[in-house]
Amino acid sequence: xxxxxxxxxxxxxxxxxxxxxxxxxxxxxxxxxxxxxxxxxxxxxxxxxxxxxxxxxxxxxxxxxxxxxxxxxxxxxxxxxxxxxxxxxxxxxxxxxxxxxxxxxxxxxxxxxxxxxxxxxxxxxxxxxxxxxxxxxxxxxxxxxxxxxxxxxxxxxxxxxxxxxxxxxxxxxxxx
Amino acid sequence: xxxxxxxxxxxxxxxxxxxxxxxxxxxxxxxxxxxxxxxxxxxxxxxxxxxxxxxxxxxxxxxxxxxxxxxxxxxxxxxxxxxxxxxxxxxxxxxxxxxxxx
Lengths: 176, 102
Prior knowledge:
CATH architecture of chain B: 3-Layer(aba) Sandwich
Strand content of chain B: 15-25%
Structural class of chain A: alpha+beta
Oligomer: heterodimer
Structural class of chain B: alpha+beta
Number of helices of chain A: 4
Largest interface: A-B, 18 and 18 residues
Number of domains of chain A: 1
Strand order of the largest sheet of chain B: 2-1-3-4
Mean pLDDT of chain A: 97
Low-confidence stretches of chain B: none
């Protein structure tokens, strides 16, 4: 499995969202796109989920779209199946698309290994940042480094992201 | 207390920290029992071992936080901390209380 590197173009996808509609990368043409490989059951995802929602709230007016993709095997891990995704999104009032990568090809194409794992693309869909959301999954009040927000601010200002790669922290993607 | 089991699966990275936390609290409480560590790899094994997700700590076969997760299976476990936060590992207070009560 190859992993996208900063400077690489986003790999296109067409996936079913929890709204039962197809979503593709082209839907976000001209937007900065934050793709987060995610799922329902992983406690790291759950710990960061409210921050994901807040990031979408704060950056949506700045032409940014966050997209969560669940690539976990929903057979072996029923909490991550499609209907549970719909339940989770409703319960948490997700303000971003939550897509199902049922055959795991998108995770594989991106080289994603963890949940959550962030890929930030600029408006030309070139990768500017890859890694984790911030430096403290455990306690949002003790975050010292806001990696994703800093990368978004730099990208939106047309600056180079100073820390373009961090280590994703979370559960492994549950492969078939 | 006769037996302490620590069950985990490789895909959930919190198990290293959880095991260190358990060992530290056992030291503090003067508990010298050897911890049985089990790497759970299949759903069948998870059900047989009453594994509610990684990491799981059993004291004499009893889960230290039985109410937190329904059912058994191969997954990463979510703990609800005393202040309501979600965590991938049990709090020190949770482990202490379970060890004291055993």
